[in-house]
Amino acid sequence: MTVTVLVLDSVGLGALPDAPDFGDAKAHTLDHTLQATGVELPNFARLGLGCIAGVSSVPKVATPSGAFGRMAERSPGKDTTTGHWEFTGVILEYAFRTFAHFPDAVMEAFDAATGRGHLGNRPASGTVIIEELGSAHLESGNPIVYTSADSVFQVASHTGVVPLTTLYTWCEAAREILQGEYAVARVIARPFEGEPGSFVRIGTARRDYSLRPPHETVLDALKASGHEVVGIGKIPDIYSHQGFTREVASKSNMDGVDRTVEAIRERQSGLVFTNLVEFDSLYGHRRDPEGYARALAEVDERLPELLGALRGDDVLLFASDHGNDPTWVGSDHTREYGLLLAYSPKIVPRDLGTRASFADLGATVANLLGIRWSGAGESFGELLW
After folding, report:
1. 8 Å CB contact between 263 and 232
2. 174 near 110, Cβ under 8 Å?
3. What is the rounded distance in angstroms from the CA atom of residue 288 to the CA atom of residue 59?
4. In whole angstroms, what is the distance from residue 271 CA to residue 312 CA?
5. At residue 125, does pLDDT exceed 90?
6. Dihedrals φ, ψ of 249, to 5°?
7. How far apart are the first and last CA of the chain?
8. Model confidence, pTM
9. What is the pLDDT of residues 286-314, one digit of tens each?
10. Which three-class secondary structure string do you get for the chain?
11. Cα distance between residue 169 and residue 207, in whole Å
């Protein structure tokens, strides 16, 4: 059996009960995106997307082909690492630390590691701060450092000034510095190219340097039991490359779908775990509902191919790790329910309800693949048959 988890990064399904605490009281990434653009998702509708509680932008079909529901996030956060870690059984008691600017001790250590100064050191949109400080970076060679409402330390540099290998080395040094009281979830390398006024970030050369999960995940348990665990896209980065038997890079959402279909067709016993990041990185943070909707439609068009790759008792699970409502204020993630859709050639379509934790996803993967999992989460695997 192959179980595939396809994360539609940031495709949230409406504000969680505690969303007001995060400033996201009425956010709804899916509904607001589709309502703002009029885009339809017929294949997802047939699967049962419109049958999920709280979804009003997709038609509710009488006889969906899949099982459907939504997941509440228990961990206190709305970022990539928090959501993905909870998928695999790590529920955080405290949110990752965020900074309005990084303390002098951190920046002095970072400057010592790079042998240069730095620019920025403040919350910002990546595209905006690169346009603002890109020329100064070209003149000085000093990297641009910025953060956001997420727990991240982002380092941007022009490939004509700083070779990629150097940028990666700097980020590895920052990862070592940002531990303990200064720990952030991720250090992110953000290379860019082009000329002032037309700088372009190089998404395929981005690298994330995550903290290691604090204890065993479902991925570790699967690997230890002899199952294949294939991470596609940025998935391995999120877990600090822990728990995988194979890592597969992807260049875009559609390339990620291509790589996923290939992995499913290999018919290996184990997990294929994919993240489609462009909803979040290209459209959510940039508050671009039209682009976000186009990206959803592109995946919808590929849905028959994904479902058609399954055989026997293979299972395909769709999930989302947080929201990023492109119609909402600001440019940060939104605290929302996670998407949950399931399909198998042998599935019994049904309402999976509102799951109490994202960790139910990982517990279900473990259950489907026949391994013992005593960590967080309650499997819904028995409801699929």
Report:
1. yes
2. yes
3. 23
4. 15
5. no
6. -75, 155
7. 14
8. 0.92
9. 999 999 999 999 999 999 999 999 999 99
10. CEEEEEEECCCCCCECCCHHHHCCCCCCHHHHHHHHHCCCCHHHHHHCHHHCCCCCCCCCCCCCCCEEEEECCCCCCCCHHHHHHHHCCCCCCCCCCCCCCCCHHHHHHHHHHHCCCCEEEEECCHHHHHHHHHHHHHHHCCCEEEECCCCEEEEEEECCCCCHHHHHHHHHHHHHHCCHHHCCCEEEEEEEECCCCCCEECHHHCEEEECCCCCCCHHHHHHHCCCEEEEECCHHHHCCCCCCCEEECCCCHHHHHHHHHHHHHCCCCEEEEEEECHHHHHHHCCCCHHHHHHHHHHHHHHHHHHHHCCCCCCEEEEECCCECCCCCCCCCCECECEEEEEECCCCCCCEEEEECCCHHHHHHHHHHCCCCCCCCCCCCHHHHC
11. 11
**Tokens, residue 359:** 């960790």
Identify residue 355 by its one-letter amino acid code: R
Q: Can you read off the two tokens belonging to residue 76? A: 């206190």
- As given in the structure block, the two tokens for residue 30 are 């899916």
